[in-house]
Amino acid sequence: MQALWMVLGAFLFATMAVGIKFASASFGTLELVLYRGVVSVIFMAVVLRISATPVRTPVPMMHVWRSAIGVLSLSSWFYAIANLPLATAMTLNYMSGVWVAAFIVGGGLLYGQAQRQGPLLGTVLLGFIGVVLTLRPTIDQNQLFAGVIGLLSGMGAALAYMQVTALGKVGEPEVRTVFYFSVGTVVVGAMGALFTDFTPWSEVSFTAAAWVVPIGVLASLGQWCMTRAYSQGATLVVASMQYSGIAFAAIYSLTLFGDQIAPIGWAGIGVIVTSGILATALRARAMPNTPAEDH
Q1: What is the CA radius of gyration of the chain?
Q2: CA–CA separation, 249 vs 265, rounded Å?
Q3: Cα dihedral value 70, 74, 77, 78, nearest 10
Q4: Contact 188, 33 (CB under 8 A)
Q5: Residue 3 CB neighbour total at 10 angstroms
Q6: In angstroms, rounded to a whole number, what is the distance separating the alpha carbons of residues 8 and 233?
Q7: Residue 56: which residues within 8 A CB-CB, separation 6 or more?
Q8: End-to-end Cα, the chain, rounded Å
Q9: d(Cα 180, Cα 196) in Å, to the nearest integer?
Q10: Do residues 205 and 26 touch, judged by C-beta distance below 8 A?
Q11: Alpha-carbon span 26 to 190, nearest angstrom
Q12: CB-based contacts of 243: which residues, under 8 Å, 6+ apart?
């Protein structure tokens, strides 16, 4: 039953993506990263206070590296959401599980353990077949760049996954890790928005403005549900439940935005989900599982 928290978290993340889609009509990507970060910092500061978790960390540089990767992934994902069908953007970001498997395979090759990586390599290849099926029918030529950015968001999430694992090994509390990631989104979002100019509020639509606070709240609640699911539920079951976010995004994509995805595109999404679940099952032997999606 604890794994059902992941279903709720996936729903919250998909709903947040809807907010990004609407708000991106008025705000730039880095502005949305900033506003999402500000709300999340406030939320996580309250959580730190309630849980009596100290803000001071003995490994600040690990948080800097984790935040840098995470913010890059988050920004890429927001850009993909703004420029691709919602279900497609969500699917590319959820490729993170396959990317982790790819990194493990690469490490095995580097250290002469290629013979042990055959099953994981199979999931990686299956995942990329799914990408080809998903992108080919659903992305126009002018959306190709956004598709590449969406793939990079999944790769960044995978790197962040591995860094959060490292933080867990040194004993960092998850709430503190999420808090510092939120601080990183504020810093990077503010710097980026200054260079790209803020959108005057007089030019912001009511719909976009109404989503600013909910985006941060939904992201924080989604993180909380995901953390609870991973900490109390069976890891493989939770990781599998996580892919329900693609189903929620597909429903939103069809009903709210009228996005049309060809049957072969749906087949590709199914292949990616399957490869991600298989990769999670296999990589459990190689590294511990901790939540690390950067939404």
Answers
A1: 18
A2: 14
A3: -170
A4: yes
A5: 19
A6: 14
A7: none
A8: 23
A9: 24
A10: yes
A11: 17
A12: 10, 94, 273, 276, 277
How far from chain centre, in Å, is Cα 218? 13
> Which is nearest to 85 in space by CA: 252, 218, 295?
252
Overall average pLDDT of the 2-30 stretch:
89
* Cβ neighbours of residue 57 closer than 8 Å, sequence gap 6 or more: 63, 172, 176, 180
158, amino acid identity: A
pLDDT digits (tens, 9 = 90+) for 116-164: 666 766 777 787 788 777 766 565 666 778 888 998 998 888 888 778 7
Residue 290: Cβ within 10 Å count: 19
For 197-242, give the secondary structure using H, E and C.
CCCCHHHCCHHHHHHHHHHHHHHHHHHHHHHHHHHHCCHHHHHHHH
The full length of the chain comes to 295
Each residue's pLDDT tens digit, 186-231: 999 888 877 877 888 889 999 999 999 999 999 988 887 877 776 6
- Contact criterion met (CB below 8 Å) for 161 and 94: no
Residue type, 280: T
Contact 295, 16 (CB under 8 A): yes
Amino acid residing at 199: T
